[in-house]
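This is your field. Have a critical look at both lines of this record:
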Amino acid sequence: MPPDEPVFCECYANKAVASMALGNKERIRHRRYMGRDTIIKHFMSLARRPGSLDKYIAIIDKEYGGSVFIDKICERGDRINIDDNRIYMCRSTITGTEIILIIFDPNIEEAFLCRLDKRICNDPRYRERVKSEKGEKYVENLLRKNIETNEEIRNIIEKIKQYLEQND
């Protein structure tokens, strides 16, 4: 995949997953106040502009209550299950531009990280830790520690990597 196709991440934990899947952070984009709907609206706006990239990719949390924007992307195109409907990929094309969303449902903590450390779901301090800037390093270390010994986690990261690196 060309290096000019960035991967936008809604939160620090999503950024850590992207980093683990890609093996580096060169293509990853994240700002502190980058929400899921903001990212998708931005993609849809960019897709309609002349000279836009061929593909926009994001890793986001669905959150409780859903999102009209996520629903629109998933209904227009493909939805592929990555892990038991808790993690999935939606892909759609808008005016010739492909939009790919890796979605944690309802969020990365409940869909994925609690399997690695139950305290993330049971202790509010750990949940807040994952949400902070320091949480990125914590999640990276947690993934690194588990990826070698936990086949389920390794398979999920590999599937995410496939969608991030897809060229067709």
Residues 133-147 form the longest helix (15 residues). Strands lie at 7-9, 28-29, 55-61, 78-83, 87-94, 97-104. DSSP finds eight helices and six strands in the chain. The mean pLDDT is 90.
